[in-house]
Amino acid sequence: MYQDNRNNRSERYEKPISEFSEKVVQIKRVSKKTKGGNQASFTALVVSGDKKNRVGVGLGKAKSVADAIQKAILKARKNMVTIPIVDGTISKEVRLKLKGAIVLIRPGKKGSGLIAGGPVRAVVELAGIKDVVSKIIGSKNKSINVWATVQALNTLAK
């Protein structure tokens, strides 16, 4: 009798299963000088995707890390873009410059896997692309590289 109640209780508190997966790319502690001292908060950069062909990026800011991540996830889901995937890779080579970052993404041969650095890998993986070769030139700033990757992949849809 008691076990039935316990099982029902745990089911109530489980998170709903989502079609999207998220990856936290970066968490930063930021502060602002005010009259009363330093106001500390956190920013979270999150990439969300369905591993089929949709991916989005969100930046959340809050007093706690958990709240910042939740805000970033919501923003990422609102800013989804659809990427055309052909046989597990992209259709053509893309090179995009955004501020100081230059992102070069090339289609990979079947079975070559993801050859990509951290920020680009997060976006490409969650977009559902299996074979791709990429290179980040210029900026080492993770957030700019993530935004540049999404914009580069978005140009393929046009």
What does this structure look like?
- The protein has 158 residues and is α+β, with helices and mostly antiparallel strands.
- It folds into two domains: 2-81, Double Stranded RNA Binding Domain; 83-156, Ribosomal Protein S5, domain 2 (2-Layer Sandwich), CATH 3.30.230.10.
- The protein contains four helices and eight strands; from the N terminus they run αβββαββββαβα.
- Helix 3 (118-127) packs parallel to helix 4.
- It is globular, with a radius of gyration of 19 Å.
- The termini are far apart.
SSE order, as H and E? HEEEHEEEEHEH
Distance between the termini: 60 Å
Q: Indicate the CATH class of the largest domain.
A: Alpha Beta
Percentage of residues in DSSP E strands: 35-45%
The level of helicity is: 25-40%
Please give the CATH architecture of the largest domain.
Answer: 2-Layer Sandwich
**Principal-axis shape:** globular
Mean pLDDT: 90
Low-confidence stretches: none
The major pleated sheet works out as: 4 strands, antiparallel
Topology record:
Blueprint: H1 2-13, E1 21-34, E2 37-49, E3 54-62, H2 65-78, E4 80-82, E5 94-98, E6 101-107, E7 114-115, H3 118-127, E8 132-138, H4 142-156
Parallel strand pairs: 7-8
Antiparallel strand pairs: 1-2, 2-3, 3-4, 5-6, 6-8
